[in-house]
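To whoever is covering the structure queue this week,

Two jobs came back overnight. Logging them here so there's a record in the thread.

Job A:
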Amino acid sequence: MSQIEVSRMKPPLVPLATLIGRELRSEKVEKPFVKYGQAALAKKGEDYFLIKPDCQRIPGNPSTSFSVFAIFDGHNGISAAIFAKENLLANVLSAIPQGSSREEWLQALPRALVAGFVKTDIEFQQKGETSGTTVTFVVIDGWTVTVASVGDSRCILDSQGGEVSLLTVDHRLDDNAEERERVTASGGEVGRLNVFGGNEVGPLRCWPGGLCLSRSIGDTDVGEFIVPIPHVKQVKLSSAGGRLIIASDGIWDALSSDMAAKSCRGLPAELAAKLVVKEALRSRGLKDDTTCLVVDIIPSDHPVLPPTTPRKKQNVLTSLLFGKKTQNSVNKAKLSAVGVVEELFEEGSAMLAERLGKDFPLDTNSGIFRCAICQVDQPPADGLSVNSGPFFSPASKPWEGPFLCTTCRKKKDAMEGKGPSRPTVIS
């Protein structure tokens, strides 16, 4: 091959200044500032929170940094909230394959969150304690925000387009008909407290246990139909940034999402969190633990979050607002500066097989399988595929989908109402 032909095959040289400029622009887009504030008032002392702004996908490599913010609203004691705070993050990260690129890591995160929540619940229930906790768990990597939640703590997004969006789903039996149907189909009963005379009072609860939530971590004394499988939503913000408000139900019982967002706009995150708590206290009084985290995702060329763009009237932009997908990528790019939010993933099913999927990597050559939840290597004889039936047959495909060890398979069956019935005690 001649020198001329070789030179033609080489890509054209790019000036160093141009390359540096590209790197700077890329860094500006991919690595926004994350600023946060926290405020709380205690009534029972069962709220806990987690703030870790300095996590790294690859230890020792700052360019792989991500942030984690979470609220744990305990009930019937504090043990479950403390245990989840101390163990949930590690359990989630252990379920993501090592050596993943950033894109692969973000794609694997929703499934890892499901595995991490279930593993944390199994580990806590093995302690034999009876408390429980809601969890709202937020991972921020660049402009991508992933939220996993069980219970009735919430995370809202106040985007720079002026839209206030709920990134979580409440698992209160009073408010969620699908969860009521799931609980009853799995063997639980749903009803209110009966007082003398047959009158029903208070919120809907599931029995046994009397919990008004359908999903939580812990609650060993309640049926397994109270599941730890989280609703997960993943979105990508525009380069204009946005504000997250993560709070326990002490806030949301007093304020709507719009009220909470509007009460603190234009203020730095630390002051904003205090003002949201103050506004909730003014509206309802201190009737429950009240905890609020405010997290601003800020363009790197702004010292603070820019003022929110006023919401526009109904027009062509409405097709591009949060939750609405478009095939016109050119228009989406043009509107990126006004706060368009792209939805990447959302799933709330309580069926573990649906949440773990069928494409989980398996090394069938080694003869050893890794449980998709607890991450323990075991021989196939000691477990089942999450998608296999209760019995093997030559025609079945028992290893289709991720592998579950015996313990995690029992947990899956129990959550779906397929576990062995509890023994009846005859006096």
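Job B:
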Amino acid sequence: MSESTKYFLPEDRMPKAWYNLAADLPTPLPPALHPGTGQPIGPADLAPIFPNAVIEQEVSTERWIEIPEPVREVYRLWRPSPLIRARRLEQALGTPAKIFFKYEGVSPAGSHKPNTAVPQAFYNKQEGVKRLSTETGAGQWGSSLAFAGSLFGLEVEVYMVKVSYNQKPYRRALMETYGATCIASPSTLTQAGRDILARHPDSNGSLGIAISEAVEVAASRDDTKYALGSVLNHVCLHQTIIGEEAMMQMEMAGESPDVVIACTGGGSNFAGLAFPYVRENLKGAKVRIVGVEPASCPTLTKGLYAYDFGDTGKLTPMVKMHTLGATFMPPGSHSGGLRYHGMAPMVSHVMELGLMEARSYHQTECFAAAVQFARAEGIVPAPESSHAVKAAIAEALRCKEEGKAETILFNLSGHGHFDMQAYTDYFSGKLIDPQFDQQALAAALEELPKAG
């Protein structure tokens, strides 16, 4: 067996196609429904906010979708990303388990998000779009789309959840460095934002609200389209380059994972690593696949599988997903990228089919795991990624107790260099564990649309 720590694929072995799990699902996804009529939507219904190429990918059931050469050319700035054996963490834990992580923090924006930002910007540019509007939680997606927009000459307007806007000023600075405009959400620039502020003047915002604002802007301007950083099928599709690379790199290491782990907010980095392994499980492999979410926003572990809107303003199509309710307001936390009321329909479907597990952790225990990881491996994880780190450590300690030398693979979806205030709060004892409000959940679920 190789004694290497890092496993690099040469650029000429970078995957040339994204993998589409829709081709292999034992039962198809329930259709998305029109927010007005409640009927299944068609491509024409999505045309006001998405370019045609993205719409085609959203509804495609083709197994492999070619990555355009201009997109692969940009990917080469950081892809293939490294697979790393966490040998020092294994030693610190005293575990017989082998721990590997796919490190997506090497991208220019510091996370996995450019894997979909670049193709979305490319397809919009191809179709003559001038501007993109989007939302962002922690800022990873906003900075990634800002980066992609700068490469293809597109204006980018980002509605950033207000609690994160205030917590993470350097994410805003990064977006502005790439040429984007960053706006705290809810804002007074849109009707959706004004409506929220009229009811809740001190609102910290949420991804659901920020999506409403960005979609409203795209739908009201002919020169603008909307770009989404997670949840939808085409986003999950673009991220599968992570898992496809990881499979080849695990083969280079002479290993095959027993457990695959990723954090889950909207579902994109989880889908990116896990969906290729779901495919192999459907062929007879036996890999445990684990999604990890915050206890303060536990979509998979406490949400209802039902039709719901993707945004608080109820402007988006209704999709069947694990949801806490579009009006549910997750408490503020430093894992802004995981504060979303719903889970990707494809990930939710995989959960319903029993093809994955889900668990949740409080943010202080995730930060403790992140610090332990940083002191062993040297990389400071993003708060979102710390959930996957926590689960990987838990699995490694289980192996220690059981005396099993299992192989664990997790996605380190981004670095935490822009999140050091969160670490400062953790070290000073200011970081608390927001409590999940069951009454607020019940109230939000009462407002679910009567669909499906």
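Note for Job B: The longest helix spans residues 386-402.

Please reply-all if you pick these up so we don't duplicate work.
Q.
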